[in-house]
């Protein structure tokens, strides 16, 4: 039971980083992307390849996964500069579908549908940290660092400028804000953090394949952010805990067949998002009178 709880806590921590990175785009910059799983996958494949081919240092894997995901985020940043609103959502959907095809076909890099297996146990400066409690502590430290960095950024001029763009891009331009540069930085930072989460995910699973980086994963992470509450630090974490604990709770209900749990989950996610948008659009942890 303890091992199960440790594994669940580690997964929640990894998804907490991922949800916080998407919240940077949705909550603070007003950029709605449904391609976030792409950069999660880039980080996971990069970290896994680094561990398999060179050294299983989790810190190096996080840095490499984050840097590559951030660099490739220009694929998302460029349409963000040219379109907005529902047009950007459509553009990010196209990127998501294209990336899944690439992940499936690039066998030499991703292992195709079979994925990458045999990922070594994680180390940190040569020290084995594969023991579940130790790896959880490392993931919690990364999550704490990510949340602290986001808090500091959002309280500074960069964060205020992002929120100005979110509320009114035209007004931000009128006040002299460099909207294209700020949106590019926001996308790059959010995708970099997604890459870090992906590298941690690869070590946690010891196996990665394309099934973890599909459109459904992107929608799940978006649901975590929206249900928990956008533009807050606690919101994405609340959403992660709720949506990760839900499958575990459903598995203990005797009247739901195991084969139907996935469908029931999707119904609950959709219903919860619909009700929140109607009665509490700021999310469970958000302020009902406005964003902070």
Automatic annotation (TrEMBL):
The GO cellular component terms are:
plasma membrane
Name assigned to this protein? Branched-chain amino acid ABC transporter permease
Q: According to its UniProt record, where is this protein mainly located? A: membrane
Its record classes its membrane topology as: Multi-pass membrane protein
Q: Where in the cell is it found?
A: Cell membrane
What species is this protein from? Teichococcus oryzae
- InterPro entries assigned: ABC_transp_permease, LivM-like
Out of the domains of life, which is the source? Bacteria
**Keyword field contains rRNA processing:** no
Task: Tell me one GO molecular function of this protein.
Answer: branched-chain amino acid transmembrane transporter activity
Question: What keywords would UniProt list here?
Answer: Cell membrane, Membrane, Transmembrane, Transmembrane helix
TM ranges are 6-26, 33-52, 58-80, 87-104, 133-153, 185-207, 219-246
């Amino acid at each position: 039971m303890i091992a199960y709880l440790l594994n669940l806590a580690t997964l929640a921590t990894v998804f907490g980083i991922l949800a916080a990175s998407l919240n940077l785009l949705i909550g603070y910059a007003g950029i709605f992307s449904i391609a976030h799983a792409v950069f999660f996958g880039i980080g996971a494949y990069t970290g896994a390849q680094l561990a398999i081919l060179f050294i299983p240092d989790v810190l190096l894997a996080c840095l490499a996964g984050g840097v590559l995901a951030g660099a490739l985020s220009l694929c998302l940043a460029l349409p963000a500069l040219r379109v907005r609103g529902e047009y950007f959502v459509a553009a990010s959907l196209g990127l998501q579908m294209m990336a899944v095809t690439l992940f499936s076909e690039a066998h030499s890099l991703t292992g195709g549908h079979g994925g990458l297996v045999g990922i070594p146990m994680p180390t940190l400066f040569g020290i084995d940290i594969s023991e579940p409690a130790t790896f959880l502590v490392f993931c919690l430290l990364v999550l704490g660092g990510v949340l602290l960095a986001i808090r500091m950024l959002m309280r500074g001029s960069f964060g205020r400028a992002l929120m100005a763009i979110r509320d009114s891009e035209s007004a931000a331009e009128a006040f002299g804000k460099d909207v294209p540069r700020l949106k590019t930085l926001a996308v790059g930072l959010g995708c970099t953090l997604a890459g870090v989460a992906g590298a941690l995910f690869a070590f946690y699973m010891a196996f990665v394949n394309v099934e973890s980086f599909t459109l459904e994963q992107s929608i799940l992470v978006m649901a975590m952010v929206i249900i928990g509450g956008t533009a807050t630090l606690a919101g994405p974490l609340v959403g992660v805990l709720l949506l990760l604990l839900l499958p575990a709770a459903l598995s203990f209900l005797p009247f739901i067949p195991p084969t139907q749990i996935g469908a029931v989950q999707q119904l609950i996610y959709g219903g919860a998002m619909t009700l929140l948008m109607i009665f509490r659009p700021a999310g469970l942890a958000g302020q009902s009178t406005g964003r902070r």
